[in-house]
Every structure is written in C-alpha cells, then in structure tokens.
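This part of the workshop introduces the protein records we will be handling. An example says more than a description, so a record of this kind follows:
>
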Amino acid sequence: MSYICNRRLKIVRELRKKGSFVMMNIREKLELWEHEYLCEYAAFSDQSKGRDVDEPKCDVRTIYQRDRDRILHSKSFRRLKEKTQVFLSPEGDHYRTRLTHTLEVSQTARTIARALRLNEELTEAIALGHDLGHTPFGHAGERALNEVCSKGFKHNEQSIRVVERLEKKGRGLNLSVEVRDGILNHKTTGNPSTLEGKIVQLADKIAYINHDIDDAIRGEILTEEELPEECTRLLGNRTRDRLNTIIHDVIANSEGTGDIVCSAEIRQAMTGLRTFLFDRVYTNPVAKGEEGKAKRMLQELFNYYSVHPDNMPEEFIRMVEQGEDREVVVCDYIAGMTDNYAVLKFQEAFEPMGWKWK
C-alpha cells in the first residue's frame, strides 16, 4: 500500500510541476486517483464502455457516480419502500421492504468492494438498481406475471427495462454499460462482466439470507435455536456474527484472485441456511398464506388491463399506440405498482362503487 501511495504522490508532483494537475477538473483527478489506488482488476471510470446516448462529461462526478445518483433520484427507486420483501404488508415498522433490502445489499457490497480496492461507486450503482423492476408482493408477484404473460417475466430483465425505457417518461436513465450489465446479471444464473457486478450478485444473497432470518424471528415464524446447527456453528448465532464471518471470508478468498468467491465451507453453510429458509419461511403457510390472494389479484389486473388498456395511465396508453407489445406494457404498469396501489387498482376495477349523484 505504501508503494502505491508513494507512486501516486510522485505522479501528482510531476503533474503539478508541469501545471497539468492544477488544470484538471475534479472528475479527472478522481479518475487519476482510481488508477493509483484501485487494484488492477477494478473497473476504472475512464475506461467505461459508456452510454447508449453520448453526453457531456460531468466536471465533478465520474460516470458511475452519476449513474448512482440517477438511480437514487428515480421514481422507481422511491417506490421500493412500499414493495414487499418477504412478508406481505407486515404490521410492524421493522420488517424489511424491497427498499431496505436494497440498502443492505448496497452496504454489504460496498464494504467488500472497498476492502478489495474495487470501484465502490460502480458497485453501489449496481446494488441500488438491481431490484428496480421488482413487482409488488415480492416473488409472488413475479411468478404471477411470469405465468400470465406470454413473453414471460423476470424482475432482473424488468429492472433493465425500467432504466432503459420507463424512467423519465420514456427517456430512460441512460446508464453506463457496466451498471446495466451488473443489474441484469445479479441473479444466481447471471454472469456479470465486472468484479463489481459479481460482488453485488453475492451481496444480494448474503443480505436476504440474513435479514430474512431476522424478520422470521421477529415474526415468530422460527427461533434462532431452530437454525441448522451445522450452519450456525460455522457462521455464528447472531445476524451480526454471520455477516461478519461471511464478509471476511469473501474478502480473504477473493483478494488478488481476479474473482469474487467464498470458501467451500462458507458457501455450503449459506446454501444450508437458504434451503432451511425455503422449508420454514418461503413456503410456510403462516408466513406466506396471503401470497395466493396477491398472485390472483395481479393476474386479474393483468387480464383486465390487457382487455382495457385505455384504463392505464396516459404514458402506457401511448406506448401501446406506438406499437409496443400490449402484454409487455401491461406488465410494465403492474410491475411498477406498490403493494397498496395494486390493491387500490384492483378495487377500482372489480369492486362495485356506491352510486353518487352528480
């Protein structure tokens, strides 16, 4: 590390002698800093493949910083606060939503990226955007749309559609190639092209395994003592201990390798906890008993708007009129709904209203 710092100081001093460093704007200085501090496997901001539509560069922020800010200020990001993570409309302030899940993924991913001297801004942008296309009512909503839409539906692909087509009234966010690649490939079956994307792919699982256990214990679905002993013996008996163990393991096994990996023992323990969660939480009729209703509701909304597209907001009507596939546009509208808004639109479509004299 001292060698890197000394080399950086030498370059900066040489640039200052020539007057070049003084003439640099803040973004250019940050890009220089990346080359002097980040490891050789990092995605450097000034080597990005760019955007689909060229834009003038910012004088303060790198390309990935701008992407992060665009996601953070998007409407789809704000709607995550009213979307289910695991428990549908829980009566309590401390259960995770899709937004708090996203923030926990971001924090875990940033910790790993910083420790490995990878690009933290790129990592954060991918993490904040990875679930923008998620449906109301969590994976139950995703399954509902996937079953009724002839084109199928996957939330990672919808997240890309959000940032490329739906945000900013159809103009999209014009994000960089690397951020979109990380968002698209964050699922287990994906293959991110950057190590920063691989970090988010793993951090997503680290986050949901641990916070879903925490929420299930809070909801009295299970107790800490019921977790598989062969997993907790290795990972720990508290959320903070498990996170600490897994994150340290990832850093130790990834540093200097050009890959993002954890040890076989930790991977097996995480898989064991995930299997346990599927048996005890994700398919538990007590915890997930309302999912069938939510699924049927979204499918009824899909059928309704497929027949009555004129009852969607103007921006979606316009997309259909411009020739976009009607089923895809209906999915766009429904996937963007929050839990409560979906219930409201279902009531408007199917529940009789009291007569009012005008």
Observations:
- The chain has 19 helices and no strands.
- The chain has two domains: 38-291, 292-350.
- Residues 195-218 form the longest helix (24 residues).
